[in-house]
Amino acid sequence: MSFMWPAAWLLILPLAAFLYWHPFRSRWVTGLRLALYLALVLALSGIVVEWPDRTGTLIVAVDRSRSMPDDAKEEAESFLRRLEASRPRDSRLGVVAFGAEPVIDKLPESPGFDGLESRIANPDGSDVSGALALALRQIPADSPGRILLISDGRWTGMDPARAFAAAAARGVPVDLRRLLRASAHDLAIAGIDAPMSAAAGEFYTLNCRIVSPEPQQVTCRIRRGDGGWMVREVKLHRGVNFVSWRDRSDQPGVADYTVEVIGSDPASDERPGNNRARRLVSIAGRKPVLLLSESPSGNLARVLAEAKIPVVVRRPSPAELTARKLAGYSGVILENVPASRLGPDGMSLLAGMVRSGALGLMMTGGRSSFAVGGYYRSPLEEILPVSMEQRQELRKNLLALVVALDRSGSMSAPIGNLTKMDMANLATLEVYRLMMPRDEFGVIAVDSAAHTVIPLTPREDIVGGETRIRSIESMGGGIFTYTALHQATNELMRSNAATRHLILFADAADAEEPGAYRELLERTSRAGITVSVVGLGTGQDSDAGFLKDVARRGNGMIYFSDRADELPRIFAQDTFLMARNTFVDTPVEADYTAALRSVSQADFGRSAGFGGYNLCYGREGAEILLVTRDEFKAPIAAVGQAGLGRVSAFTAEADGEYTGRFAADPMAGTLLSALANWMLTPESGGDDYLITQQLTDGVHRIELHLNPDRERDPFPAPPVVNSVVTRGFGAPETRRDVFTWVSPDRLEVNLPLEGDSVQLCTVVWDGRRPESLAPAAALYSPEFRPDGDAVSGADIAELADSTGGRELLLPDGLWDELPSRLRRFNLTPWIALAAVLLLLLEVAERRLGLLSRLFRRRAATVSAVAVEGKAALSREKRRKRAAGTEKAKNAEFPPDEPPVPPTAEPEEPGDSLGDALRRARRRR
To answer: Where is the VWFA domain (predicted)?
Structure first.
């Protein structure tokens, strides 16, 4: 017991003096006043009591990385269920799951445990440090806590020693439950030694280190890029073995090597994930330009070749936009390519590399480019020097557009923090925002019936449109397609707009009730109504053929995407293509501007003629080189900066039906090659510095060596490394790291390599253009490293022991080992309540005398009982004396003589007093 303000006890002296000089006549009031004073002093002193408490919080951190055994998830869940079953009532159990990043699987406040349900985004890592830090944050600072780490003891990323030290400083023990994958028979590639870069035509060696658990005959294979395998049979001894290859490349770019080793008994290999490794070698020289075109033999490729620009022509495909392939080019040209041929991840990677300065970008126009090609709201639209925004003056005729949305049960599937239905709603909002004030717009949500969310109404008259669209929720069975078509086309039939269009959104694997759709679409086609279909899924899904037929009969477009986050871009693309055709297909004359001198010094004349162009507008900060003479005054050619990279746009068709008089213009090739040359990244190199790269222990080390004889540093501030990191899944990531000084002439940056990621880095400092570095890739997932290259379980066990934890086999008794802490309980509120009650009791006693009367009555009752007891005892004594006298008389006289009656004795005073008391009690 302790007091927060013990000085309050000094108040006892004046209170006692006051009570002494002002006594009360009743001892009861005096006692109550004394108790009241004591309670007030206790309350003012802040009385606190403490007692030991073991109830608290247990957080279990579960390793979900690839290095864990195959049954690790089931064993961890069994462990957690036993902990939940034995959990004390007032204690809490939380769960943190982790791979390369930690996530909360179960909050400590959540009741029960239903299993490990969180999704591990990147299992190619074991961030033990981050998991412990997150677990520690779930334990209240004023509560006992304990952490249980279920892991194989291997970790990646930051050294967890600091996290264990933080737990020890908090007094939180960390226990360890190890789940190990067998590794006694692990055949592994430990590393590939090769240069980061080599000159074109130069021979170099790739030296592969192979760890074998026993002597055996193995097959080693190596290939470059997508070429064939080179096979070699090798006899290995136990331990580390070396196998080497020599190679050369005559073309600048990136050589992507894959090495694989196959043991004599592949089924016995306990960790096959480290039997295949990867290494990238950058081939120095002037890198070519990648031209993506549906016409590989077209005029644009010839023009670039004549301008001495090395060019590689490929048909557009997401496979062409990978980090490994793009690292071998200095720029990318998109010739009338639709966005759907590139893929969302490819566009994100291309935009990220342009911003980092690793690539340049050029886009040419046509009916499959810019807005009508699906680039509105795409990652590439943000970096182009022209804007695809639409303005009121573009279209003179009214538009009526209805969106019919599938809201069946399958639309409730989650996508990150949203659902498929949420993404469909966002896509509908994109269309809603593209409408002009007098355009008519409507929304229908369909499951087994059609539900009108917004009837076909002029855009300016719709009230709360965005809120109504966002409120659409998934419910019901599959979409009844015919019902959706019938309801939507009935709405459009009543409109007088010049253009009437329907966007039907459906699940490609769950589009039910075809009905008489053929007859319906025949009538709508005759009425001039067009129907486009957006299918969530792929063209191979069960109902994809039916949806394709709907779009064909409706004279519209068909789109498939298995990524719901692509829906807003697709909906906007269809709106531009079918309803707002932003491709101007009439001949137009364009004038050159003075800004043309920034890309070329040639004499282009005054103007050029074109057969059509994509209507765009100049973006702020861009330089417009060609401007149309029509009412739009739109750019035909423009250049601009995107982050650290350069971008050029040619909104006319470079080679095709709408090229017009420009195809015969003698300066056409000069203009196109000038736009291409302007956006290319420069060659690297410098006289006063040298940049080197190394790959060691899963770390990409970049070093900047300066000339020791320099008079000053070549930069005002330490340079920066901009990196674009791609993995085998998801969109690329970007990061920015500043060089740090490690010696007077050397700066360094260390970047971790994760899993199958590829890093594309550029070095940037003030006054220079970005310098691209050789791409770097990890051998394989760090989770598959051989035991000799990874942190062992013993190290983690020692760190756990330093916190007061221990290694466990079973969870029994773990709750009883929560640290005991003194729990403080403040009694001040209760003492204050007691003081109030004492005050009320004192007032009642002073005014009513309740206590005095109560105890006086009880005393009288006790006294009366005592008197009555004495009287009864006296009567018993008299009765016994009378009985003895009678017996004596009977002995003196003969039996035949009658007894003499006893003489009545007067009653004693005690008898009368007892009777009076009894009567008094009866009256009460």
So the answer is: 400-575
- Measured distance CA(633)–CA(388) in Å, rounded: 14
The residue ranking higher by pLDDT, 55 or 249, is: 249
Average pLDDT rounded to a whole number, residues 776-803: 76
Q: Rounded to whole angstroms, how far apart are CA atoms 694 and 750?
A: 10
Give CA–CA dist 798/900, Å, rounded: 112
Residues 367/600, Cβ–Cβ less than 8 Å? no
Q: Can you say how many angstroms the Cα of residue 178 is from the centroid of all Cα atoms in its chain?
A: 27
- For tokens 């790959």, the residue is 695
Record the tokens describing residue 779, joined without a space: 């051998």
Which residues neighbour 182 within 8 Å (Cβ) at sequence distance 6 or greater?
270
pLDDT of 192 higher than 70: yes
Q: Domain spans of the chain?
A: 2-52+825-848, 55-179+790-819, 188-284, 289-388+584-679, 392-581, 689-771, 862-877+907-924
CATH class, range 392-581: alpha beta
Q: What is the pLDDT of residue 870?
A: 63
Alpha-helical segments (H) within 474-594: 481-493, 517-526, 544-553, 567-574
Take residue 6 and report the two structure tokens written for it. Answer: 């013990």
CATH 3.30.420.140 fits 188-284, yes or no: no
Q: Model confidence over 233-250: pLDDT tens digits?
A: 999 999 999 999 999 988
Instruction: Provide the β-strand partners of residue 592.
Output: 626
Would you call 396 helix, strand, or coil by DSSP?
coil
3-class SS letters over 600-650: CCCCCCCEEEECCEECCEECCCCEEEEEECCCCCCEEEEEEEECCEEEEEE
The SS3 assignment for 788 reads helix
CATH code for residues 55-179+790-819: 3.40.50.410
Please list, in sequence order, all residues whose beta carbon lies within 8 angstroms of the beta carbon of residue 618, skipping any fewer than 6 positions away. 385, 386, 387, 624, 635, 638
CATH class of residue range 289-388+584-679:
alpha beta
- The CATH code of the domain at 689-771 is 2.60.40
Whether 55-179+790-819 and 289-388+584-679 share one fold: the answer is yes
